[in-house]
Amino acid sequence: MPALLLVLLLALILFGAGFAVEVLWWFAVAVLVIWLLGFVFRSAGSGGQRGTWYRW
Q1: Which keywords accompany this UniProt record (predicted)?
Q2: What is the pLDDT of residue 23?
Q3: With 70 as the cut, is the pLDDT of residue 47 above it?
């Protein structure tokens, strides 16, 4: 009985980790798209000056 509970607990942990990794991948893709859009709009809206991708 304890072995069965251990296997079920391990399966639950792995399922949770897989779900978290999937969510983090979607979050990373969303951040990348937002960053790329900001880069494109900043370059287009600079009025002829060369835009930079940083704000230092």
Answers
A1: Membrane, Transmembrane, Transmembrane helix
A2: 85
A3: no
Does residue 47 lie in a domain region? Answer: no
Does residue 26 contact residue 18 with C-beta atoms inside 8 Å? no
Our count of domains for the chain comes to 1
| Average pLDDT over every residue of 20-28 | 87
Nearest-angstrom CA–CA distance, 8 and 17: 14
DSSP result, 31-54: HHHHHHHHHHHHHHTTTTSPP-S-
DSSP 55: -
Structural domain that includes position 24: 1-42
Report yes or no on 16 lying in a domain.
Answer: yes
